[in-house]
Sequence to fold (277 residues):
Amino acid sequence: MKKLITFLAITLCISLNAQNSSNDSTETRWDMVKYDVGNMFKGVGYSYARPLHWQGKQWAQFGAVVGGTGLVYLADDNTSRFIRNNREGIPKFIRDYGEFYGSPANNYLATSGVYAAGLITKNEKLRRTGVLLISSATSAGLLQQVLKSLVGRARPLANLGKDTFDPFNSSRNFHSFPSGHALLAFTNAYAIGKQFKNPWVKAGIYTLGAIPGVSRVWDGQHWLSDMVFAFAISIATVESIDRYLDKKYDEKYNNQQKMVSWNLNFGPGQMGVTVNF
Fold:
């Protein structure tokens, strides 16, 4: 019940933030559903086609993500072991939240709830958010399923080490890369964060979205690099589909240019990610 209340609270917060959108519409709800579902499918297709249009800057960003993930990979044994060893120091309700919210079924329950609220109230901004959430989760979710099979990385709990790969192995023990829980939860968080201007609110939402990914590292289901790459997929997918939806809906997020930038920083004995928004 507490978890259901959490879902409803998130939906309510988004609804309140979107209330300045006009509810006066001559469209029927059925027309809205047809239009929105079409945009969901087209948004997924748009996100998959984007690499075909990348220029030098986008390829450089992709290279930075791959390079950064590679550096995290080199330290996976130590970092993942450290995180697992500190698992019991984390409050149980936080660990339970991470496992609960990152599951696909609960993820789609939350995203569908946001869209349903927008449809019932005929709130275009909330509908658009629901479309962004569902299409982003679908696009990123399908991609991670393909990558899991192609890469075939052994999970930490398999006790085979970070360097063990067996592509197309059907066993779940070889579906570590990337983390599905991290990907779905952070996709939602990143999309919802677009509703808000306040950087502290955004940071709080991103933190909540990161917990499911970290919880999977706590449980030995994933390596740290699995989580890092999943976050990168989430951000790229949401940004891509959001740009597509800008052309399909009048309501824009905060009516401002998308200026979010993610930069990897490296130095002697340290590595970090800087987020500017």
Q: What stands out?
A: The chain has a mean pLDDT of 85. The chain is about 65% helix and 5% strand. Strands lie at 261-267, 270-276.
